[in-house]
Amino acid sequence: MSSEPHRSIDNAIGAQIRYYDLRAPEYLDPLAPPDRPVRDVFSPTTARILIDELAPRGEVLELACGPGGFTAELARHSSTVTAIDASEQMLARNRVEVDRPNVRYIHANLFEWRPGSRYDVVFFGFWLSHVPPSLFDDFWRLVGSCLRDDGRVAFIDEDDRGTANDDLRTVDGLPLARRTLADGREFDVIKVFWNPDDLAPRLRSLGWRFNIKRVDEPFMYGVGSQRKETR
What we know:
By secondary structure, this protein is of the alpha/beta class. The chain has one domain (3-27, 58-225): Rossmann fold, CATH 3.40.50.150. It contains six helices and ten strands. The chain has helices at residues 3-23, 44-54, 69-77, 88-98, 136-146, 196-205; strands at 59-63, 80-85, 103-107, 119-125, 147-158, 168-171, 174-180, 186-190, 208-215, 219-226. It has a seven-stranded mixed β-sheet, sandwiched between helices. It has a three-stranded antiparallel β-sheet with strand order 6-7-8. A hairpin with a 2-residue loop joins β6 and β7 (174-180). α2 runs parallel beside α3 (69-77).
């Protein structure tokens, strides 16, 4: 890959981090102006039901933890949660809102971070859609390097039904969606709306076994693990 596409991806990731830093105080606030044409809200009740279904025991790693809605649910089940985010402001909000002794925090860009240990469960909510297509395989290699041999992975995200609710464009081969802050400043974030029927075989080709289902509108929930080779 030439240096120009690398710069485009780095710039897009930097803009994405900056946006979430600035958006953190008003993120998910129903009284704040919407940052996109149609705001889809994932029900906290559904989040609790799905995390209860997952039952994440042991040591859990949460990637791109955001303000803490999923972190709190994960912490109810697990012995520890390690919550990572590239936005310092999101981490600060998570610390205040979750306030659990079994949660520790790491400030890191996931496209540069490498794990120092392995976990029983890796979870990410509304993060997979922000992974650039060209870094998709690398991201899943990272996820694999975070898992213990019998570990599980789970994610929640918008699926392809969400394309109708967003302002999408492609710049330098990157799928981008416009986000607007309350003060009018605009940012483009990376946004890939996966169809579960396309995502599952793509993950299978990388050595994963996943069950992905649509939940509510327009979201999906996936749970999987690495396929074990047989001889």
